[in-house]
Each structure stands twice: as C-alpha cells, then as structure tokens.
Amino acid sequence: xxxxxxxxxxxxxxxxxxxxxxxxxxxxxxxxxxxxxxxxxxxxxxxxxxxxxxxxxxxxxxxxxxxxxxxxxxxxxxxxxxxxxxxxxxxxxxxxxxxxxxxxxxxxxxxxxxxxxxxxxxxxxxxxxxxxxxxxxxxxxxxxxxxxxxxxxxxxxxxxxxxxxxxxxxxxxxxxxxxxxxxxxxxxxxxxxxxxxxxxxxxxxxxxxxxxxxxxxxxxxxxxxxxxxxxxxxxxxxxxxxxxxxxxxxxxxxxxxxxxxxxxxxxxxxxxxxxxxxxxxxxxxxxxxxxxxxxxxxxxxxxxxxxxxxxxxxxxxxxxxxxxxxxxxxxxxxxxxxxxxxxxxxxxx
Length: 349
Prior knowledge:
- The protein is built from 9 helices and 13 strands.
- By secondary structure, it is of the alpha+beta class.
- The chain folds into 3 domains: 3-144, ATP-grasp fold, A domain (Dna Ligase, domain 1); 150-273, ATP-grasp fold, B domain (D-amino Acid Aminotransferase, Chain A, domain 1, 2-Layer Sandwich), CATH 3.30.470.20; 316-347, no CATH class.
- A 6-stranded antiparallel sheet has the order 7-6-5-4-10-11. A 3-stranded antiparallel sheet has the order 2-1-3.
- Strand 10 and strand 11 (266-273) form a beta hairpin.
- Mean pLDDT is 84; it is low at 83-90.
- Keywords: ATP-binding, Kinase, Magnesium, Metal-binding, Nucleotide-binding, Pyruvate, Transferase.
C-alpha cells in the first residue's frame, strides 16, 4: 500500500481533523499527555473502518497475491516518508506485524501500522528532529512470511565509527526479538576490504520468537544445546556479505539490512540507508582532563558494543525495563540490560 492509500484513508474519514487537532496540542515536556494523545489517535485508527472502495482495492490485491504465491502467513511492514533522512533514523520505531493470516487480519494490521505513526516514541523523535506530524505519511508492505530459523540485521559500514567494516547480528527465530531488544544476538565483524571475518562474539540466547500455527508469534525456550552455539555458520556469513555488497553497490551508499534464513536459503526482507553514520576516524580517544587540568585514568570498567557514539557524564540510574522509565530524571545515564524503542521518550530527557 502506497502513501496515497494512507492519505485516502485519513482524508475520507474523520482522522485527518483528529490528527491535526491532537498533534497541535503535543508538548514533549509533558510525556503523560503525549501518551494520552497518542493512545487516542492509535485507537481511532484501529476502530475506523476502511472506506468501501479502498477496502475493495486492498482485499482484491491481497487475495490475488496470496493465491498466486501460495501465501498462508504474511509480514505487514511499515515505511514512513520521514523514516530515513539525513540526520535522522526512524528504523524500528514504526510497527511491523509478523505471521498474519487471513484478509481481515491483514486489514487490521494495516490500520495498526498506520496508527504506529503516532506512538509516543515516534512523536517525540519527530518533534526533536523538527518534522511536521501532520505531513508525515506511511506506506505498508505485505510480504510472504519466511519461517525463519535464524534472523538478524547487517550494516555494510560500522554505524558507530564509520569504518569499512560489515557488522552482522544474528539470533534464533524471528528478527523482531533482536530489533525490539528482547535478546542479545551474536555479533560478527567482517573487514570491508578483504571480506575476512575478523571478530565474532557468540551470545547465549535462552528464548526465541517463532510462528504460531494459528497465526501470530509466540516465545519459546531455546533448547539448551543451541543456546550458546554460533547462530550463523561461516559459510552463511560469507553468503550474506556477498548479498550485502550487491545491495550497497545498487544504492551506492552504506545500508542497514534486515535478513532472515530458513533451512535452505537466506532472504533479504528490508534495506534502508544508514543515515547517521559518522566519518571514520583513526585518532585515538584522549583522556578527558579533570577540573584542575590533569588527565585521569580512563581504563574501561566494562566493555560492549556502542549503540550511539559519544561521551557523556551524569548519575547512573539502573532500571529493569520500559515500565520503570518514569524514574529516569533529566541528565541521568540510563543503565539497563537491553534498550527497546519504547524507551525513546525517556531517553529524550
């Protein structure tokens, strides 16, 4: 569904006026009010019926697609007009629905994708980046679902340093568990020039997201014997790197790629530009001076993979998950086992 379908849905119902009124009252300094406004708009999207003509066009196209390609389960993915522009990345903020089955469920998932333009995390991020909430539109892609054994993401350039390295993360089951921060994936680093695998870190994975026979997803325990083994074989890493190079060559810029694999093949399910990549730098990080001008020992206390480059200071606040984000105060440093997109409003502080 193109952005024109979204606009037709909004313009032919009361949603256009509702969005304009509600978004005009948004003040990100009052997160509770943002939550209320966003919940009201999303509820309106989900409860508003499709105009007959638009419904007929969508159902006809979907049923033809399903019959032609023997589709039982589908992925319903969102793509907003402001999703990946220079200096901003909305990757993972709008919603995706997996293993959707049946025409009515597809229609519901489309409306929910459209409504995900107005989650608090998206609204706050758009506000910070200066986007007009009322001009953003959203396209929806319906794909035949892969029964993924392993899934993950790939960057054709290191998104933290800008170095010519390919970064792959892989985990058992559906990739939404990785994107949503529910599991810690394997981490593989490939030299961009030689294509050699130069680093791998194997993570223990205790749960995975898999398909339910009736549609939708369920969480299950990973068998003990599979929890700490390499999720993606070296041969498949090489094949994935080869595919990534073709994609980057086509778009002529660094790319952020989502992929999955069943027992036989690797599939590319989404590719978008890496929009916030820094310039590569070979200069070492210097120790920060103290208030009296002397250098201090900055040997690392902990190590890991950076999600966003930079240096900051403040009080460390240890929180268990999204339900505790209200405890985070202005200027504090969030410490948590795994971040998720739902934490974005709190991070804005």
